[in-house]
Structure prediction request, 113 residues.
Amino acid sequence: MLSLVQSAKEKDKVVPAFDNSVTALDKKEVKVQGFMMPLEAGERQQHFILTAYPPSCSFCMPGGPEGVVEVRTKQPVKYAAEPIVISGRMAVMRDDPTDIYYRLTGAVQTSAK
Prediction:
């Protein structure tokens, strides 16, 4: 669902144009499954990227901005190479300076159910 976004020209820049089903997720509690891409040193992470595809390079983002979610957790989450499920408050970012489209805050690791 998060991939339902197009690029749109607005004045002198390109911005995301989200499908209505995606914008409806803004400020809602959601669950997202993906692969952890650490942004901090150490085995436990509180700030990381959740990607739709497994990272194959420590320096490369696997996919475009529609396939990643920036995550900030309440408590550190142990790094795992297999997919994990995270729940938290979704922010659909229209004009983020780091070009992130999605952000989860107050997140916790949970089960898929």
In short: The first strand starts at residue 5 and ends at 10. Strands lie at 5-10, 13-18, 29-38, 44-51, 68-78, 84-92, 102-110.
